[in-house]
Write a sequence for this structure.
Protein backbone atom coordinates (compact mmCIF):
# COMPACT_ATOMS: atom_id res chain seq x y z
CA UNK A 1 0.00 0.00 0.00
CA UNK A 2 2.18 2.79 -1.26
CA UNK A 3 -0.58 5.40 -1.34
CA UNK A 4 -0.87 8.36 1.00
CA UNK A 5 -4.19 9.83 2.17
CA UNK A 6 -4.63 13.48 3.17
CA UNK A 7 -7.44 15.47 4.71
CA UNK A 8 -8.04 18.72 2.84
CA UNK A 9 -9.29 21.17 5.46
CA UNK A 10 -11.94 23.72 4.54
CA UNK A 11 -12.90 26.63 6.76
CA UNK A 12 -15.91 28.75 5.99
CA UNK A 13 -16.07 27.05 2.60
CA UNK A 14 -12.50 28.06 1.72
CA UNK A 15 -9.60 25.71 1.23
CA UNK A 16 -6.95 26.44 3.85
CA UNK A 17 -3.28 26.97 3.05
CA UNK A 18 -2.48 24.07 5.41
CA UNK A 19 -4.50 21.78 3.10
CA UNK A 20 -2.14 22.57 0.22
CA UNK A 21 0.90 22.13 2.48
CA UNK A 22 -0.45 18.73 3.52
CA UNK A 23 -1.04 17.63 -0.07
CA UNK A 24 2.49 18.76 -1.02
CA UNK A 25 4.02 16.83 1.87
CA UNK A 26 1.97 13.76 0.89
CA UNK A 27 3.15 14.10 -2.73
CA UNK A 28 6.76 13.95 -1.69
CA UNK A 29 6.13 10.93 0.57
CA UNK A 30 4.10 9.13 -2.11
CA UNK A 31 6.85 9.73 -4.68
CA UNK A 32 9.33 7.95 -2.39
CA UNK A 33 6.88 5.09 -1.94
CA UNK A 34 5.95 4.95 -5.62
CA UNK A 35 2.30 5.57 -4.83
CA UNK A 36 -0.54 8.02 -5.29
CA UNK A 37 -1.89 10.88 -3.21
CA UNK A 38 -5.58 10.65 -2.36
CA UNK A 39 -7.39 13.53 -0.69
CA UNK A 40 -10.58 13.56 1.36
CA UNK A 41 -12.56 16.74 0.70
CA UNK A 42 -15.82 17.18 2.59
CA UNK A 43 -17.97 20.28 2.46
CA UNK A 44 -21.28 21.84 1.63
CA UNK A 45 -22.70 22.30 -1.86
CA UNK A 46 -20.11 23.66 -4.27
CA UNK A 47 -17.11 22.50 -2.22
CA UNK A 48 -16.03 20.22 -5.07
CA UNK A 49 -14.58 23.29 -6.81
CA UNK A 50 -11.55 22.99 -4.52
CA UNK A 51 -10.53 19.65 -6.05
CA UNK A 52 -8.62 21.46 -8.81
CA UNK A 53 -6.30 23.23 -6.35
CA UNK A 54 -5.60 19.90 -4.63
CA UNK A 55 -4.62 18.40 -7.98
CA UNK A 56 -2.39 21.37 -8.73
CA UNK A 57 -0.48 20.61 -5.53
CA UNK A 58 -0.05 16.90 -6.13
CA UNK A 59 -3.28 14.98 -5.46
CA UNK A 60 -4.05 12.16 -7.90
CA UNK A 61 -7.56 11.44 -6.64
CA UNK A 62 -9.97 13.61 -4.65
CA UNK A 63 -12.73 11.80 -2.78
CA UNK A 64 -15.38 14.44 -2.49
CA UNK A 65 -18.27 14.22 -0.04
CA UNK A 66 -20.93 16.90 -0.28
CA UNK A 67 -23.34 17.33 2.63
CA UNK A 68 -24.69 20.33 4.52
CA UNK A 69 -23.44 18.91 7.83
CA UNK A 70 -19.88 19.46 6.54
CA UNK A 71 -20.43 23.21 6.17
CA UNK A 72 -19.01 23.49 9.70
CA UNK A 73 -16.20 21.54 11.36
CA UNK A 74 -17.80 18.20 12.16
CA UNK A 75 -15.19 16.11 13.98
CA UNK A 76 -17.23 12.95 14.54
CA UNK A 77 -18.53 12.70 10.98
CA UNK A 78 -15.10 13.52 9.54
CA UNK A 79 -13.47 10.84 11.69
CA UNK A 80 -15.96 8.26 10.40
CA UNK A 81 -15.48 9.41 6.80
CA UNK A 82 -11.67 9.50 6.80
CA UNK A 83 -11.36 6.26 8.82
CA UNK A 84 -13.56 4.43 6.32
CA UNK A 85 -11.37 5.62 3.46
CA UNK A 86 -8.12 4.93 5.37
CA UNK A 87 -9.16 1.32 6.00
CA UNK A 88 -9.04 0.60 2.28
CA UNK A 89 -5.23 0.59 2.62
CA UNK A 90 -2.77 3.47 2.93
CA UNK A 91 0.78 3.88 4.13
CA UNK A 92 -0.11 7.02 6.04
CA UNK A 93 -2.82 9.60 6.62
CA UNK A 94 -1.56 13.19 6.77
CA UNK A 95 -3.55 15.85 8.62
CA UNK A 96 -2.63 19.54 8.71
CA UNK A 97 -2.04 20.55 12.32
CA UNK A 98 -4.35 23.55 12.50
CA UNK A 99 -6.43 24.09 15.66
CA UNK A 100 -9.02 21.75 14.17
CA UNK A 101 -6.47 19.34 12.69
CA UNK A 102 -4.98 18.85 16.14
CA UNK A 103 -8.47 17.82 17.31
CA UNK A 104 -9.04 15.53 14.33
CA UNK A 105 -5.71 13.66 14.00
CA UNK A 106 -5.77 11.89 17.41
CA UNK A 107 -9.44 10.95 16.93
CA UNK A 108 -8.60 9.33 13.64
CA UNK A 109 -5.50 7.52 14.93
CA UNK A 110 -7.42 6.09 17.90
CA UNK A 111 -10.34 5.07 15.66
CA UNK A 112 -7.92 3.22 13.35
CA UNK A 113 -5.82 1.76 16.17
CA UNK A 114 -2.95 3.54 14.46
CA UNK A 115 0.20 5.11 15.85
CA UNK A 116 0.32 8.91 15.67
CA UNK A 117 3.18 11.30 14.97
CA UNK A 118 2.08 14.77 16.07
CA UNK A 119 3.09 18.26 15.02
CA UNK A 120 5.97 17.14 12.83
CA UNK A 121 8.29 19.60 11.10
CA UNK A 122 9.88 17.07 8.76
CA UNK A 123 8.87 13.65 7.50
CA UNK A 124 10.72 11.03 5.47
CA UNK A 125 10.99 7.32 4.86
CA UNK A 126 14.02 5.51 6.15
CA UNK A 127 14.33 1.80 5.55
CA UNK A 128 10.59 1.28 5.59
CA UNK A 129 10.07 3.38 8.72
CA UNK A 130 8.53 6.82 8.94
CA UNK A 131 10.99 9.23 10.52
CA UNK A 132 9.80 12.64 11.69
CA UNK A 133 11.14 15.52 13.71
CA UNK A 134 9.07 17.31 16.31
CA UNK A 135 9.98 20.29 18.52
CA UNK A 136 9.73 19.38 22.23
CA UNK A 137 10.57 21.08 25.55
CA UNK A 138 9.04 24.36 24.30
CA UNK A 139 11.13 24.25 21.15
CA UNK A 140 14.42 24.00 23.03
CA UNK A 141 14.98 20.42 21.87
CA UNK A 142 14.14 18.64 18.62
CA UNK A 143 13.28 14.95 18.83
CA UNK A 144 13.55 12.59 15.88
CA UNK A 145 10.90 9.88 16.12
CA UNK A 146 10.79 6.58 14.26
CA UNK A 147 7.63 4.69 13.49
CA UNK A 148 8.31 1.26 12.12
CA UNK A 149 5.65 0.54 9.55
CA UNK A 150 3.80 -2.68 10.01
CA UNK A 151 0.66 -3.58 8.16
CA UNK A 152 -1.30 -0.77 9.75
CA UNK A 153 -1.61 2.78 8.60
CA UNK A 154 0.14 5.64 10.45
CA UNK A 155 -1.45 9.02 11.19
CA UNK A 156 0.76 12.12 11.02
CA UNK A 157 -0.15 15.72 11.85
CA UNK A 158 1.98 18.43 10.28
CA UNK A 159 3.01 21.71 11.90
CA UNK A 160 1.59 24.64 9.90
CA UNK A 161 4.11 26.40 7.65
CA UNK A 162 6.76 23.71 8.23
CA UNK A 163 6.06 22.19 4.81
CA UNK A 164 5.74 24.38 1.76
CA UNK A 165 2.76 24.34 -0.60
CA UNK A 166 4.51 23.27 -3.80
CA UNK A 167 2.71 23.41 -7.15
CA UNK A 168 2.67 20.12 -9.08
CA UNK A 169 1.08 20.08 -12.48
CA UNK A 170 -1.50 17.38 -12.02
CA UNK A 171 -5.14 17.13 -12.62
CA UNK A 172 -6.88 15.18 -9.90
CA UNK A 173 -9.60 12.69 -10.71
CA UNK A 174 -12.66 13.48 -8.60
CA UNK A 175 -14.81 10.73 -7.15
CA UNK A 176 -18.06 11.52 -5.38
CA UNK A 177 -18.32 9.60 -2.12
CA UNK A 178 -21.42 9.38 0.09
CA UNK A 179 -21.05 10.22 3.78
CA UNK A 180 -20.62 7.43 6.31
CA UNK A 181 -23.86 7.24 8.29
CA UNK A 182 -25.77 10.48 8.85
CA UNK A 183 -23.21 13.29 9.30
CA UNK A 184 -25.87 15.43 10.98
CA UNK A 185 -26.41 12.81 13.70
CA UNK A 186 -23.43 13.65 15.93
CA UNK A 187 -22.87 14.32 19.61
CA UNK A 188 -20.20 17.01 19.31
CA UNK A 189 -21.68 20.05 17.54
CA UNK A 190 -19.43 22.91 16.44
CA UNK A 191 -20.34 26.43 15.37
CA UNK A 192 -17.89 29.19 14.52
CA UNK A 193 -18.48 32.22 16.76
CA UNK A 194 -15.89 34.64 15.47
CA UNK A 195 -13.62 34.57 12.49
CA UNK A 196 -11.97 37.96 12.57
CA UNK A 197 -12.47 40.01 9.44
CA UNK A 198 -11.49 37.12 7.19
CA UNK A 199 -8.69 39.07 5.56
CA UNK A 200 -6.48 39.11 8.62
CA UNK A 201 -3.33 37.04 8.25
CA UNK A 202 -2.97 34.29 10.78
CA UNK A 203 0.14 34.08 12.99
CA UNK A 204 0.99 30.66 11.54
CA UNK A 205 0.91 31.92 7.98
CA UNK A 206 2.22 35.49 8.14
CA UNK A 207 5.77 36.08 6.85
CA UNK A 208 6.08 39.01 9.29
CA UNK A 209 4.79 39.24 12.87
CA UNK A 210 4.71 42.44 14.91
CA UNK A 211 4.16 41.69 18.61
CA UNK A 212 3.45 43.97 21.52
CA UNK A 213 4.04 43.67 25.24
CA UNK A 214 3.57 45.57 28.48
CA UNK A 215 5.92 48.30 27.26
CA UNK A 216 2.97 49.66 25.28
CA UNK A 217 1.47 50.68 28.63
CA UNK A 218 -2.23 50.58 27.62
CA UNK A 219 -4.42 48.49 25.30
CA UNK A 220 -5.22 51.43 23.00
CA UNK A 221 -1.51 51.84 22.25
CA UNK A 222 -1.61 48.55 20.35
CA UNK A 223 -2.56 50.80 17.45
CA UNK A 224 1.19 51.47 17.07
CA UNK A 225 1.74 47.74 16.55
CA UNK A 226 -1.21 47.44 14.19
CA UNK A 227 0.00 50.41 12.14
CA UNK A 228 3.46 48.90 11.80
CA UNK A 229 1.93 45.56 10.76
CA UNK A 230 -0.22 47.38 8.20
CA UNK A 231 2.87 49.15 6.81
CA UNK A 232 4.54 45.80 6.17
CA UNK A 233 1.38 44.67 4.41
CA UNK A 234 2.09 40.98 5.05
CA UNK A 235 2.20 41.01 8.85
CA UNK A 236 0.09 39.55 11.65
CA UNK A 237 -0.16 40.99 15.16
CA UNK A 238 0.91 38.97 18.20
CA UNK A 239 1.12 39.64 21.92
CA UNK A 240 2.78 38.47 25.12
CA UNK A 241 1.02 36.47 27.82
CA UNK A 242 1.09 39.46 30.21
CA UNK A 243 -0.96 41.41 27.69
CA UNK A 244 -3.47 38.64 26.86
CA UNK A 245 -3.90 37.82 30.55
CA UNK A 246 -4.85 41.45 31.13
CA UNK A 247 -7.39 41.26 28.32
CA UNK A 248 -5.66 43.81 26.08
CA UNK A 249 -5.66 41.23 23.30
CA UNK A 250 -7.47 37.88 22.78
CA UNK A 251 -5.81 34.71 24.10
CA UNK A 252 -5.52 33.43 20.54
CA UNK A 253 -2.93 36.18 19.85
CA UNK A 254 -0.60 34.99 22.58
CA UNK A 255 2.86 33.91 21.45
CA UNK A 256 4.81 31.82 23.93
CA UNK A 257 5.27 28.58 25.79
CA UNK A 258 1.56 28.17 26.51
CA UNK A 259 0.39 30.05 23.42
CA UNK A 260 1.29 29.93 19.74
CA UNK A 261 4.73 28.92 18.52
CA UNK A 262 5.69 30.89 15.45
CA UNK A 263 8.62 31.06 13.05
CA UNK A 264 8.09 33.95 10.62
CA UNK A 265 10.75 35.45 8.36
CA UNK A 266 10.72 38.59 10.49
CA UNK A 267 9.57 39.04 14.09
CA UNK A 268 9.38 42.56 15.51
CA UNK A 269 9.08 42.68 19.32
CA UNK A 270 7.70 46.01 20.52
CA UNK A 271 7.93 46.80 24.24
CA UNK A 272 8.58 43.14 25.07
CA UNK A 273 11.15 42.37 27.77
CA UNK A 274 11.67 38.79 26.58
CA UNK A 275 10.51 36.50 29.38
CA UNK A 276 11.43 32.85 28.82
CA UNK A 277 7.72 32.10 28.43
CA UNK A 278 7.62 34.45 25.41
CA UNK A 279 10.98 33.45 23.89
CA UNK A 280 9.77 29.84 23.75
CA UNK A 281 7.17 30.90 21.22
CA UNK A 282 9.25 33.03 18.84
CA UNK A 283 12.94 32.16 19.04
CA UNK A 284 12.70 30.05 15.88
CA UNK A 285 11.90 33.18 13.84
CA UNK A 286 14.43 33.79 11.05
CA UNK A 287 15.14 37.43 11.91
CA UNK A 288 14.24 39.10 15.20
CA UNK A 289 14.07 42.85 15.79
CA UNK A 290 13.56 44.23 19.31
CA UNK A 291 12.55 47.73 20.34
CA UNK A 292 12.66 48.30 24.09
CA UNK A 293 13.61 51.14 26.41
CA UNK A 294 15.65 48.87 28.70
CA UNK A 295 19.04 48.01 27.15
CA UNK A 296 19.37 45.13 29.63
CA UNK A 297 16.10 43.44 28.57
CA UNK A 298 16.61 39.72 27.75
CA UNK A 299 14.89 40.19 24.36
CA UNK A 300 18.12 41.84 23.09
CA UNK A 301 19.98 38.54 23.68
CA UNK A 302 17.92 36.76 21.01
CA UNK A 303 17.34 39.74 18.71
CA UNK A 304 19.41 40.07 15.55
CA UNK A 305 18.87 43.82 15.60
CA UNK A 306 17.90 45.95 18.56
CA UNK A 307 16.96 49.57 19.09
CA UNK A 308 17.02 50.94 22.62
CA UNK A 309 14.40 53.59 22.96
CA UNK A 310 10.90 54.75 23.67
CA UNK A 311 8.46 52.66 21.61
CA UNK A 312 6.22 55.72 21.22
CA UNK A 313 9.04 57.47 19.36
CA UNK A 314 10.78 54.57 17.56
CA UNK A 315 7.77 52.61 16.30
CA UNK A 316 6.06 55.49 14.40
CA UNK A 317 9.42 56.31 12.80
CA UNK A 318 9.86 52.67 11.77
CA UNK A 319 6.29 52.54 10.46
CA UNK A 320 6.94 55.58 8.27
CA UNK A 321 10.23 54.10 7.00
CA UNK A 322 8.66 50.72 6.16
CA UNK A 323 5.74 52.45 4.43
CA UNK A 324 8.29 54.38 2.37
CA UNK A 325 10.18 51.20 1.39
CA UNK A 326 6.97 49.36 0.53
CA UNK A 327 5.68 52.20 -1.62
CA UNK A 328 8.83 51.97 -3.76
CA UNK A 329 8.82 48.19 -4.14
CA UNK B 1 -31.98 19.64 37.40
CA UNK B 2 -28.61 18.23 38.29
CA UNK B 3 -25.44 20.06 37.34
CA UNK B 4 -24.11 16.87 35.81
CA UNK B 5 -25.61 13.71 34.41
CA UNK B 6 -26.91 11.50 37.13
CA UNK B 7 -28.91 13.13 39.87
CA UNK B 8 -28.51 11.79 43.42
CA UNK B 9 -25.28 10.02 42.50
CA UNK B 10 -21.86 11.29 43.37
CA UNK B 11 -20.43 13.36 40.51
CA UNK B 12 -17.02 12.05 39.50
CA UNK B 13 -14.38 13.92 37.55
CA UNK B 14 -11.05 12.37 36.52
CA UNK B 15 -8.06 14.55 35.67
CA UNK B 16 -4.99 13.05 34.00
CA UNK B 17 -1.78 14.91 34.80
CA UNK B 18 1.86 14.64 33.79
CA UNK B 19 5.06 15.39 35.65
CA UNK B 20 7.34 17.51 33.46
CA UNK B 21 10.59 19.41 33.93
CA UNK B 22 10.40 23.15 34.49
CA UNK B 23 11.19 24.80 31.19
CA UNK B 24 13.19 27.87 32.21
CA UNK B 25 16.54 26.12 31.82
CA UNK B 26 18.98 25.29 29.09
CA UNK B 27 18.40 21.61 28.34
CA UNK B 28 21.27 19.23 27.59
CA UNK B 29 21.06 16.01 25.62
CA UNK B 30 22.03 12.86 27.52
CA UNK B 31 25.10 10.87 26.30
CA UNK B 32 22.73 8.29 24.74
CA UNK B 33 21.47 11.18 22.54
CA UNK B 34 17.98 9.66 22.94
CA UNK B 35 16.82 11.65 25.96
CA UNK B 36 17.53 14.89 27.74
CA UNK B 37 19.99 14.93 30.62
CA UNK B 38 17.78 15.12 33.71
CA UNK B 39 20.58 16.14 36.08
CA UNK B 40 19.56 19.12 38.18
CA UNK B 41 16.14 19.58 36.57
CA UNK B 42 13.20 20.68 38.71
CA UNK B 43 9.85 19.07 38.06
CA UNK B 44 6.24 20.10 38.37
CA UNK B 45 2.77 19.41 37.04
CA UNK B 46 2.48 20.32 33.33
CA UNK B 47 0.96 23.83 32.95
CA UNK B 48 -2.23 22.87 31.12
CA UNK B 49 -2.84 19.95 33.50
CA UNK B 50 -2.80 22.45 36.37
CA UNK B 51 -5.57 24.43 34.65
CA UNK B 52 -7.56 21.20 34.28
CA UNK B 53 -7.17 20.28 37.97
CA UNK B 54 -8.24 23.79 38.98
CA UNK B 55 -11.26 23.76 36.65
CA UNK B 56 -12.32 20.35 38.02
CA UNK B 57 -12.01 21.51 41.63
CA UNK B 58 -14.03 24.66 40.91
CA UNK B 59 -16.82 22.60 39.32
CA UNK B 60 -17.05 20.25 42.30
CA UNK B 61 -16.92 23.18 44.74
CA UNK B 62 -19.75 24.90 42.91
CA UNK B 63 -21.73 21.70 43.01
CA UNK B 64 -21.14 21.20 46.73
CA UNK B 65 -20.19 17.55 46.51
CA UNK B 66 -18.40 15.11 44.24
CA UNK B 67 -15.06 13.55 43.65
CA UNK B 68 -11.96 14.60 41.71
CA UNK B 69 -9.68 11.65 40.93
CA UNK B 70 -6.22 12.44 39.57
CA UNK B 71 -4.19 9.99 37.49
CA UNK B 72 -0.60 10.07 36.35
CA UNK B 73 1.46 7.63 34.30
CA UNK B 74 5.19 7.29 34.78
CA UNK B 75 7.94 6.33 37.22
CA UNK B 76 7.62 6.70 41.02
CA UNK B 77 8.39 10.45 41.14
CA UNK B 78 5.06 11.20 39.39
CA UNK B 79 3.58 10.68 42.86
CA UNK B 80 4.92 14.18 43.65
CA UNK B 81 2.49 15.80 41.20
CA UNK B 82 -0.32 13.52 42.34
CA UNK B 83 0.31 14.70 45.92
CA UNK B 84 0.33 18.28 44.70
CA UNK B 85 -3.09 17.78 43.09
CA UNK B 86 -4.35 16.15 46.29
CA UNK B 87 -3.06 19.13 48.28
CA UNK B 88 -4.94 21.46 45.92
CA UNK B 89 -8.10 19.54 46.84
CA UNK B 90 -8.41 16.40 44.69
CA UNK B 91 -10.05 13.46 46.48
CA UNK B 92 -7.80 10.54 45.57
CA UNK B 93 -5.02 9.58 43.19
CA UNK B 94 -4.04 6.71 40.92
CA UNK B 95 -0.44 6.15 39.85
CA UNK B 96 -0.06 4.04 36.71
CA UNK B 97 3.49 2.88 37.12
CA UNK B 98 5.82 2.69 34.15
CA UNK B 99 9.63 3.05 34.19
CA UNK B 100 9.45 5.42 31.26
CA UNK B 101 6.90 7.59 29.52
CA UNK B 102 7.24 6.67 25.84
CA UNK B 103 6.97 9.23 23.00
CA UNK B 104 3.98 7.21 21.81
CA UNK B 105 0.63 8.91 22.43
CA UNK B 106 -1.34 5.82 21.38
CA UNK B 107 0.41 3.60 23.94
CA UNK B 108 -0.16 6.10 26.76
CA UNK B 109 -3.78 6.65 25.75
CA UNK B 110 -4.51 2.92 25.76
CA UNK B 111 -3.06 2.54 29.28
CA UNK B 112 -5.11 5.48 30.59
CA UNK B 113 -8.28 4.35 28.79
CA UNK B 114 -7.94 0.87 30.31
CA UNK B 115 -7.90 2.42 33.78
CA UNK B 116 -10.63 5.02 33.17
CA UNK B 117 -13.03 2.69 31.37
CA UNK B 118 -14.79 1.27 34.42
CA UNK B 119 -14.46 4.40 36.57
CA UNK B 120 -17.96 5.73 35.97
CA UNK B 121 -16.69 9.28 35.43
CA UNK B 122 -19.03 12.07 34.36
CA UNK B 123 -16.15 14.08 32.97
CA UNK B 124 -12.56 13.13 32.14
CA UNK B 125 -10.18 16.06 31.83
CA UNK B 126 -6.67 16.55 30.46
CA UNK B 127 -4.41 19.51 29.76
CA UNK B 128 -4.45 20.19 26.00
CA UNK B 129 -0.84 19.02 25.82
CA UNK B 130 2.09 18.11 28.01
CA UNK B 131 4.48 21.03 27.96
CA UNK B 132 7.51 18.74 27.43
CA UNK B 133 6.54 16.22 24.75
CA UNK B 134 4.02 18.64 23.20
CA UNK B 135 2.05 16.14 21.13
CA UNK B 136 -1.36 17.21 22.43
CA UNK B 137 -2.92 13.89 21.51
CA UNK B 138 -3.41 11.63 24.52
CA UNK B 139 -6.63 13.20 25.85
CA UNK B 140 -8.46 13.08 22.54
CA UNK B 141 -7.26 9.52 21.90
CA UNK B 142 -8.60 8.42 25.29
CA UNK B 143 -11.97 9.97 24.44
CA UNK B 144 -12.10 8.11 21.16
CA UNK B 145 -10.97 4.81 22.73
CA UNK B 146 -13.74 5.13 25.34
CA UNK B 147 -16.28 6.09 22.67
CA UNK B 148 -17.16 9.32 24.51
CA UNK B 149 -17.93 12.78 23.12
CA UNK B 150 -14.56 14.54 23.06
CA UNK B 151 -13.55 18.19 22.80
CA UNK B 152 -9.94 19.34 22.43
CA UNK B 153 -8.43 22.60 23.70
CA UNK B 154 -11.31 24.21 25.60
CA UNK B 155 -10.52 27.81 26.54
CA UNK B 156 -13.91 28.04 28.25
CA UNK B 157 -16.09 25.29 29.64
CA UNK B 158 -19.52 25.32 31.19
CA UNK B 159 -21.37 22.27 32.41
CA UNK B 160 -25.09 22.34 33.13
CA UNK B 161 -27.94 19.83 33.05
CA UNK B 162 -25.84 17.01 31.65
CA UNK B 163 -24.50 19.11 28.79
CA UNK B 164 -21.24 20.88 28.14
CA UNK B 165 -20.54 24.07 26.22
CA UNK B 166 -16.96 24.86 25.33
CA UNK B 167 -15.01 27.41 23.34
CA UNK B 168 -11.95 26.61 21.24
CA UNK B 169 -9.54 29.24 19.91
CA UNK B 170 -8.88 29.01 16.19
CA UNK B 171 -6.36 30.76 13.99
CA UNK B 172 -7.85 34.25 13.95
CA UNK B 173 -11.19 33.21 15.48
CA UNK B 174 -12.98 30.89 17.85
CA UNK B 175 -15.71 28.28 17.81
CA UNK B 176 -18.34 27.03 20.22
CA UNK B 177 -18.82 23.34 20.86
CA UNK B 178 -21.76 21.67 22.58
CA UNK B 179 -21.76 18.06 23.74
CA UNK B 180 -23.54 15.69 26.15
CA UNK B 181 -21.94 14.12 29.24
CA UNK B 182 -20.20 11.88 30.06
CA UNK B 183 -17.40 13.35 27.98
CA UNK B 184 -13.67 13.87 27.64
CA UNK B 185 -12.27 17.41 27.41
CA UNK B 186 -8.77 18.84 27.14
CA UNK B 187 -8.10 22.24 28.63
CA UNK B 188 -6.38 25.25 27.07
CA UNK B 189 -5.14 28.34 28.80
CA UNK B 190 -7.67 30.93 29.91
CA UNK B 191 -9.99 28.74 31.99
CA UNK B 192 -8.49 28.94 35.46
CA UNK B 193 -5.23 29.73 37.18
CA UNK B 194 -4.24 26.85 39.44
CA UNK B 195 -4.39 27.63 43.17
CA UNK B 196 -1.37 27.24 45.41
CA UNK B 197 -1.81 24.37 47.86
CA UNK B 198 -2.49 25.67 51.37
CA UNK B 199 -0.62 24.31 54.38
CA UNK B 200 -3.86 22.68 55.47
CA UNK B 201 -4.24 21.16 52.02
CA UNK B 202 -0.69 19.82 52.08
CA UNK B 203 -1.27 18.19 55.48
CA UNK B 204 -4.61 16.72 54.37
CA UNK B 205 -3.07 15.33 51.16
CA UNK B 206 -0.74 13.10 53.13
CA UNK B 207 -3.74 11.09 54.36
CA UNK B 208 -5.58 10.89 51.03
CA UNK B 209 -5.55 7.57 49.14
CA UNK B 210 -2.90 7.10 46.42
CA UNK B 211 -3.14 3.78 44.67
CA UNK B 212 -0.32 2.40 42.51
CA UNK B 213 -0.79 -0.15 39.76
CA UNK B 214 1.20 -1.13 36.66
CA UNK B 215 0.49 0.83 33.46
CA UNK B 216 -0.81 -1.37 30.64
CA UNK B 217 1.09 0.40 27.86
CA UNK B 218 0.90 -2.41 25.34
CA UNK B 219 3.01 -2.22 22.20
CA UNK B 220 5.15 0.91 21.86
CA UNK B 221 5.44 1.63 18.14
CA UNK B 222 7.08 5.06 18.15
CA UNK B 223 10.69 5.19 19.34
CA UNK B 224 13.22 7.99 19.74
CA UNK B 225 15.97 8.03 17.12
CA UNK B 226 17.70 10.99 18.66
CA UNK B 227 17.44 14.34 20.34
CA UNK B 228 19.28 17.47 19.38
CA UNK B 229 19.44 21.10 20.42
CA UNK B 230 18.48 23.56 17.71
CA UNK B 231 21.36 25.78 16.57
CA UNK B 232 22.05 28.70 18.91
CA UNK B 233 21.09 32.14 17.69
CA UNK B 234 24.13 34.23 16.90
CA UNK B 235 24.38 37.16 19.29
CA UNK B 236 22.58 40.18 17.93
CA UNK B 237 23.49 43.83 17.80
CA UNK B 238 22.04 46.91 19.38
CA UNK B 239 22.04 49.36 16.50
CA UNK B 240 21.51 52.51 18.50
CA UNK B 241 19.12 54.56 20.52
CA UNK B 242 15.82 56.11 19.58
CA UNK B 243 14.35 56.92 16.17
CA UNK B 244 17.81 57.87 14.88
CA UNK B 245 18.62 54.13 14.61
CA UNK B 246 15.64 53.41 12.34
CA UNK B 247 17.36 54.09 8.96
CA UNK B 248 20.21 51.69 9.85
CA UNK B 249 17.67 49.04 10.90
CA UNK B 250 15.78 49.35 7.62
CA UNK B 251 19.04 49.18 5.65
CA UNK B 252 20.09 45.96 7.44
CA UNK B 253 16.65 44.39 7.01
CA UNK B 254 16.99 45.04 3.28
CA UNK B 255 20.64 44.25 2.59
CA UNK B 256 21.76 41.85 5.33
CA UNK B 257 18.69 39.96 6.57
CA UNK B 258 16.96 40.39 3.18
CA UNK B 259 13.51 40.28 4.72
CA UNK B 260 12.19 43.49 3.21
Amino acid sequence: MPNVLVYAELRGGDLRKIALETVSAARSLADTLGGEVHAVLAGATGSGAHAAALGEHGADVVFHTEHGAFAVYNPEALTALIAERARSGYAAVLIGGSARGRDLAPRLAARLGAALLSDVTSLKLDGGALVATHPVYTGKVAVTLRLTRGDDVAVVSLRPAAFGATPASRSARVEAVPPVGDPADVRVAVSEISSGDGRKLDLAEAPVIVSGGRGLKAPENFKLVEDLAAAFGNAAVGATRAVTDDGWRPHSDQIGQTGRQVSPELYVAVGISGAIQHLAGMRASRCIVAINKDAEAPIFKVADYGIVGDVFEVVPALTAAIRDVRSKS
Amino acid sequence: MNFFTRSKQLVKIAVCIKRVPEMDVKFRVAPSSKAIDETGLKWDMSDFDGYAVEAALQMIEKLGNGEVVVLSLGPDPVQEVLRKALSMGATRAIHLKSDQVPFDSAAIASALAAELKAGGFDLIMFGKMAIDSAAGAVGVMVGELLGLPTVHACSRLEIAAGKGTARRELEGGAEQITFPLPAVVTIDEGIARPRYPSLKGIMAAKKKPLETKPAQLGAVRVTVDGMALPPERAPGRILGEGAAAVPELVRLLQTEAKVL
About this structure: The two ends of chain B are 61 Å apart (CA to CA). The first strand of chain B starts at residue 12 and ends at 16. The mean pLDDT of chain B is 94.
